[in-house]
């Protein structure tokens, strides 16, 4: 049985979700640099990845994590990763299709919205 995350945990977890999203985007940016020949190396995704992971760890040490929240955070990470992948493939069409990445992002965003209580609220 799935429980929705309460509003107190949702407000304290927004920072965690944003950091997970940034970590996913930066991780995919580093992976794109290695796999897509058109993408040039930049030090900024590496710096942002290190800082976001460090901030996520500090947040983990400070605040207790609700039961369902790690799955929502992982979904936010994958939204960032697949979202950046779709953006990169839109910029460089020779890298492949972005259809799968867009579908995954939309499904994960719908699931996150449902878990956080923004979509399909129970009456």
UniProtKB/TrEMBL annotation:
**Chain segments annotated as transmembrane:** 39-57, 69-87, 99-117
Q: Establish whether keyword Transferase is in the entry.
A: no
Keywords, A to Z, come to: Membrane, Transmembrane, Transmembrane helix
InterPro entries per the record? Answer: DUF1422 (IPR009867)
Pfam families xref list: DUF1422
For the keyword Transmembrane helix, the answer is yes
User: NCBIfam families recorded for this chain?
Assistant: PRK11056.1
Q: What is this protein called?
A: YijD family membrane protein
This chain's source organism reads: Vibrio hangzhouensis
């Amino acid at each position: 049985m799935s429980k929705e995350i309460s509003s107190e945990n949702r407000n304290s977890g927004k920072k965690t979700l944003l950091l997970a999203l940034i970590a996913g985007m930066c991780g995919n940016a580093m992976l794109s640099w290695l796999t897509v020949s058109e993408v040039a190396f930049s030090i900024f995704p590496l710096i942002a990845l290190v800082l976001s992971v460090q901030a996520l760890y500090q947040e983990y040490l400070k605040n207790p994590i609700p039961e369902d929240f790690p799955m929502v955070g992982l979904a936010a990470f994958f939204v960032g990763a697949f979202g950046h992948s779709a953006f990169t493939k839109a910029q460089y069409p020779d890298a492949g299709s972005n259809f799968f990445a867009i579908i995954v992002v939309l499904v994960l965003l719908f699931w996150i919205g449902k878990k956080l209580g923004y979509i399909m609220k129970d009456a």
